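Hello again,

I reread your note about wanting to compare the complex against the isolated chains. To keep things tidy I'm splitting this into two emails, and this first one only covers the full assembly. Below are the input lines as submitted, including protein chains and any nucleic acid or small-molecule components. They are followed by the predicted structure of everything together. The single-chain runs will come separately.
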Amino acid sequence: DAKTTQPPSMDCAEGRAANLPCNHSTISGNEYVYWYRQIHSQGPQYIIHGLKNNETNEMASLIITEDRKSSTLILPHATLRDTAVYYCIAEPNSGGYQKVTFGTGTKLQVIP
Amino acid sequence: GAVVSQHPSRVICKSGTSVKIECRSLDFQATTMFWYRQFPKQSLMLMATSNEGSKATYEQGVEKDKFLINHASLTLSTLTVTSAHPEDSSFYICSGGTPNTGELFFGEGSRLTVL
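Full-complex prediction:
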């Protein structure tokens, strides 16, 4: 599995867009980029994933560079409830049967 | 999204006793589930892969005789911490996936405190 690198922490003003970067320079062709987040004392929550095209859902947008070596998770209008640790993971899509290895993630603090 | 439920959410036990944590997939069948452990201010650490109808696969450094995993049905996996000690106090989280898109769904977590 490709190693990912994320900044340890970020702040974002409430109502503004939060842009969380992730570097995955050794990602292989069959690995997807997954994003999860973990709110304090809860289990992680799936946010979004993609292979090479940009993706958007009701929670966030995922922008993957053309060379796939990095990506950005965008929360368009951050709220206080978005304060959490965000994990970027590069894993093959094996139908939910592939174990997921978590790095240290980015601790996002949304400020009122 | 799919729902994974864990029980109990919190448990306190005495040192030397055993504790069982249940993980249920409520609206999908999970032939494979994963167990994680998380210490304060640290990331999730994968403990083992639970396979329905067969033995679990443990990560390096995880004692299989201490952390007993049973996955007897497609919707239930259990983790039993045997002869628990204070150093086993942690946040235990299970997850399961669906075959459609590959994302994992996580339980709410179970916080174990061993006195």
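For quick reference: Chain B has a mean pLDDT of 91.

B.
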